[in-house]
């Protein structure tokens, strides 16, 4: 397919994309920021800064391709165990993102949602989240979900409690108590930096998700790399337990 604004090799590769066979929901584990920085003799946080730039590009291309949901793992429950300065830096990135990107998101028809235990985040970030979600809620093109203070097991426990409160026990009842019940399960998970793990991301939702791992570090994950992942996905035969 032709994609507006794409040039060179990325545009060439995009020609092989089949619009009807694109995933509806892409999830990404943006891994390798620290290693990217280390390789260049930079502090780890520089890697996160570049990583935020990569996320912007991936969001933009997703919208252009007509992907409907993009979930990015921005901060896990386990990330609280990192050094204080790194946590503060990541929280600041999130603050800035929520303050500065909302205009662009709105303009491009992108709806922002956060998945995770928001009430454990600093108060001002909670307010920024409510504001950003509210201001972008009418976006129809793409839903961008940032997983923040997110853990798959925590989400499962939370949903189990909700289901018990309701007194109905079924897959559908469980789903109603996820952070974002309206979001379809991811079709494709991309994890960068060579790690081949799920790391407590969307455990319930990934029952039938196609997994794609690439050695490329997240700050280096280009439009071209993204299209390569989508092409790989299109070649797969999804059976969902059928023959
Ligand atoms: C994993 O790399 C990355 C993270 C824990 C943070 C991801 C955050 C971003 C890409 C910034 C965008 C976020 C916002 C708030 C909009 P790592 O640090 O584990 O890398 P390493 O495995 O090489 O050490």
Q: Strand content of the residues, in percent?
A: 5-15%
* Protein structure class: alpha/beta
Terminal Cα separation, in Å? 30 Å
The set of bound ligands, ions and cofactors reads:
farnesyl diphosphate
Shape type: globular
* Biggest pleated sheet: 6 strands, parallel
Number of helices: 9
Question: What is the residue-averaged pLDDT?
Answer: 97
Name of the CATH architecture = 3-Layer(aba) Sandwich
Order of helices and strands: HEHHEHHEHEHHEEH
CATH class value? Alpha Beta
Write the CATH fold name. Undecaprenyl pyrophosphate synthetase
Radius of gyration: 18 Å
Helix content: 40-55%
Strand order of the largest sheet: 3-4-2-1-5-6
CATH H level, superfamily name: Decaprenyl diphosphate synthase-like
Explain the overall architecture.
By secondary structure, this protein is α/β, with parallel strands linked by helices. It has a single domain (9-234), classed as Undecaprenyl pyrophosphate synthetase, CATH 3.40.1180.10. The protein contains 9 helices and 6 strands. It has a 6-stranded parallel beta sheet, with helices on both faces. Strand 3, helix 6 (123-136) and strand 4 form a beta-alpha-beta unit. 33% of the residues are buried. The model has no long low-confidence stretch (mean pLDDT 97). It binds farnesyl diphosphate. Residues 30-35, 48, 51-52, 55, 74, 79, 90, 93-94, 97, 193, 218 line the site of farnesyl diphosphate (FPP).
